[in-house]
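pasting for ref
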Amino acid sequence: MSNKVYFFLILFLLSSATVCAVGIGQYSREKLILFQPGLEKKYTFYLYDAPHIRGNVLGELAQYTTVIDADPDGGARNIDLVIKLPDYLEPGIHSLTISATESISGETGSAGAYTSVETHIKVFALYPGKHPDFNEVVANDLNTGEKSVLGLSVTNNGEETVTGASGKITIYDVNNLTVAILNADTKSIGPFETQSLNTVLDAAMYNLTPGKYRAVGTVTYDGLELNYTKESTFIVGSMNLNIVDSTPDIYVNATNKYYMTIESDWAANIDNVYATIRMPDGETVKTPNIDLIKPEQGRKAAGQLEAYLETKGLEVGTYNLDVTLYYKGNTDTKKVKVNIIEGEAPKIDKPKTGINSTTVLIIISVILAIFVAVYFLVIRKGKVNSSTSNSPGNDKSFSDKDIKPPSL
């Protein structure tokens, strides 16, 4: 690479290093304001991470906002925004954008690249009358034989209170067959208020088998019905494990690292899962224990078991391994196919099964603790008792005649 190329590369890196990432933070967590005529609100923002930053406001509410900035185009600092709302806004959401922008040079009128970041405050003006909005169906995973609370989330975005909001949830299986129809409870919903209209799904009552289901909800209010539905999916789980994937090929006359991916639709975590693998030569290999953590609603818990399989003396071919899964006091035995093939196996460091140094230190510490305890509780106590029993105060045959002067 020529010196000229090096020069331009260094120049590019130096110029790139001068570009700063600008940041903006809000002290208040309030992001949504309920409109009130003439309402005045003050917010403080923090601008940072650049030597020259300009704060600005954009959007339809900018005309109602005053920026108080003691050092425009200065460095890190606080700025205040005062929002004074008008007497009327159209019903719905109105947005105010607060931006922080910086330039490479920071010089007024200079050309160059800019970085910018934005945050937002929204103002919501209520609709006249009653205006319920159906937000979502909340349906959590459950297990066979269990009960679960399902809910319809509804927000009243109107100026008048909804006196009676209720709903219905229909449960469908994977074949789109109706398996249950549930009526949600009835509640009143005030202006700008959100309520959950709940019901209970009893998996035992409706004989729900393991699998995936859909919950489709409808909402009625004060004798009227919303003309749209919402839906959610959930899983009815059972205490079982499945092997959904495994290492297809291992090498002959080698130590092979072997994986099995296991999955469960149980609606909770399953701790201390392990497996034993019976090899074609009769040897049994145990995997380390793992915990299956359910990631989130609507998804199955999964994990990966691993083991080291020895194939010395075995013949090339396809085998069905007997794999026994152990979990929560249960066992499941499954057949898993594996191919033993010719070739050179990847080099692996098989963990040592002997006692490691940490275990040795723990054992030594325990032995020393036991020795110290025995010494102080038994040996020293015995010595003290012995010396006490031989003392003059405890020997009835002792007399002044037994006291002899020291030898000279």
